[in-house]
Write the structure tokens for this entry.
Amino acid sequence: MIDIRLIRENPDIVKQNIRNKFQDHKLPLVDEVIELDAQARAAQKEADDLRSGRNKISKQIGALMAQGKREEAMALKEQVAKDAARLAELEEQESTLQEKVRSIMMTIPNIIDPSVPIGKDDSENVEVERFGEPVVPDFEIPYHTEIMERFHGIDLDAARKVAGNGFYYLQGDIARLHSAMTAYARDFMIDRGFTYCIPPFMIRSNVVTGVMSFDEMDAMMYKIEGEDLYLIGTSEHSMIGKFIDEMIDEEELPKTLTSYSPCFRKEKGAHGIEERGVYRIHQFEKQEMIVVCKPEDSMMWFDRLWQNTVDLFRSLDIPVRTLECCSGDLADLKVKSIDVEAWSPRQKKYFEVGSCSNLGDAQARRLRIRVKGKDGKYFAHTLNNTVVAPPRMLIAFLENNLNADGTVNIPAALQPYMGGKMKIE
């Protein structure tokens, strides 16, 4: 959610930002907000004037009664009663108008960073940099579930009978590898100075609307029937929600946290659920990183966050690249976003394994996360990034470490988490 003052003072900037995100249907909302905001402020001013006048009249009534001028005092009391009725009407009107303004403001996209490339959708995202040399071996690499099945490591049929498509059973060394990756990612981030957290896996609706747009909420979140609770789609949701309504001392910033959680997603939309694999599923686990910081530091932290993911994948000998998300591919709350993609030797292309986002002060405005600084109070900036999501990491790991004889190499960094194993056989 952007600052209402920006819409009042620079509506053309807001409109151009909407055009840059190819959401022209939202252009009329800017003028509508300006009109509703003007009405709300006019109602507030009239109400403030009435409150001020009421205080003055009350003093006059007391003075007149003391002087024995009862009739004049009673006439003023009648005026106070009329003003009270009008004041109640204005307060209700102001509240209604402000709620309408807030509702529309929640749908107007955040102002994107000037460095974001302009494009309609993810087909126009821009490659930034490659790390590591992509290799295509001289033997055929099977589909990732076939590799897992050779180790008796996955059972999709049983999961389908129990829960439907989009779920899986992992077992044996594959399940152990999955857990090893989350443990390694946890320690990797702790070594970089982040505080480890395990958050609630359900959050209330006011937190949901504070951390994401309505479109994202509808496409992703599972609602708990009969409760004001949603299953989290990523631990970012509850980790940012942790600071709701907080006033943070500037000296305490930045807050750097790394969190583990299961994640639950509907995955509605064009992508759909994968029947044969674990690339796009309803339930998975993830290690995340979160930063709450001063506005002037957010771009520095943005670069640090995506670099952490690159470094982790490279420590496991997996080639990766970074991809800058274009304007049309950015969710409404995001200022800037970079995807990290891992190399797939089987497909001979890169695929997404993580996403780093700077949300500016959008989430902080919605959740009222403020900072108390030397020069006054202001909204914090929030950022998030995937450290590792093991289902997708499993795909990248197995394909890049598979040998011609069907064994899978375990890089040195991961061996302590696999009981010292150097290979899966």
In short: The chain has 13 helices and 18 strands. The first helix runs from residue 4 to 9.
